[in-house]
Design a protein that fits this description.
The protein is mostly helical. The protein is about 85% helix and about 0% strand. Helix 2 runs antiparallel to helix 4. The termini are far apart.
Length: about 110
């Protein structure tokens, strides 16, 4: 009885949205793996580690910060599309761009 009450068009839009979201998550995972492998195999990782001449704990924190900021910059367009454009396209969000950017800044700070 519940299935008859559900709108088939809305169900199809929900499937499309879920499919697009899964594909973007997969692209993000692949991008992250390629980024880390590139950093590791190119020697950038050891070069950055040797460049930072601080006590070990500070060196690790700075290394992590540089790594996370670099990946954040690299994946920003994908995140923008996944978290802002796609929900607006499917009518799931009416949040302004400025408000979204403030939320992303808060998310980044809390993530670190």
């Amino acid at each position: 009885m519940l299935e008859q009450a559900l709108d088939p068009q809305r169900q199809e839009k929900a499937r499309e949205y879920a499919r697009a979201t899964r594909q973007l998550i997969l692209v993000d995972l692949i991008l992250g793996a390629v980024f880390l492998l590139t950093i590791w195999l190119s020697g950038i990782s050891s070069g950055l580690s040797n460049l930072l001449s601080f006590p070990y704990t500070v060196k690790v924190a700075l290394y992590f910060l540089v790594l996370m900021m670099s990946y954040g910059i690299l994946s920003a367009p994908l995140g923008y599309y996944r978290d802002f454009v796609l929900p607006h396209r499917y009518g799931l969000s009416h949040q302004s761009w400025q408000s979204w950017m403030v939320d992303k800044a808060k998310e980044s700070i809390l993530g670190l």
